[in-house]
């Protein structure tokens, strides 16, 4: 009977170790997936915002107004930034 108890305890220890390994793996994966930047913003959220914003920026600069404002900015920059 003692041998049986020892086997049960050994199995329980192995199961506990496997559970701890899985928990450590999940924690490491969560930390890697969050990838917080120095400013505290998760990298994933920053990338999601960039994917949202990029088409709007592109559309603006393809519009007549956007092109006009970009040309004005380039001219002001070339002239020494009088209107900065």
Quickly describe the structure.
The chain is an all-alpha fold and 84 residues long. The chain has three helices and no strands. The longest helix is centred in the N-terminal third of the chain and has 33 residues, at 2-34.
| Silhouette | rod-shaped
SSE string: HHH
Distance between the termini: 87 Å
The amount of beta strand, in percent, is under 5%
Mean pLDDT: 83
Q: How helix-rich are the residues, as a percent range?
A: over 70%
- Give the radius of gyration: 29 Å
Largest sheet: none
Number of strands: 0
- Count, helices: 3
Name the structural class.
mainly alpha
Low-pLDDT runs: none
Structure report:
There is one protein chain. This protein has helices spanning 2-34, 43-62, 64-78. Helix 2 (43-62) crosses helix 3 (64-78). The protein has 84 residues and is mostly helical. The chain is rod-shaped and about 90 Å long.
Describe the secondary-structure layout.
Layout lengths: L1 H33 L8 H20 L1 H15 L6
List descriptors.
84 residues; mainly alpha; rod-shaped; 3 helices
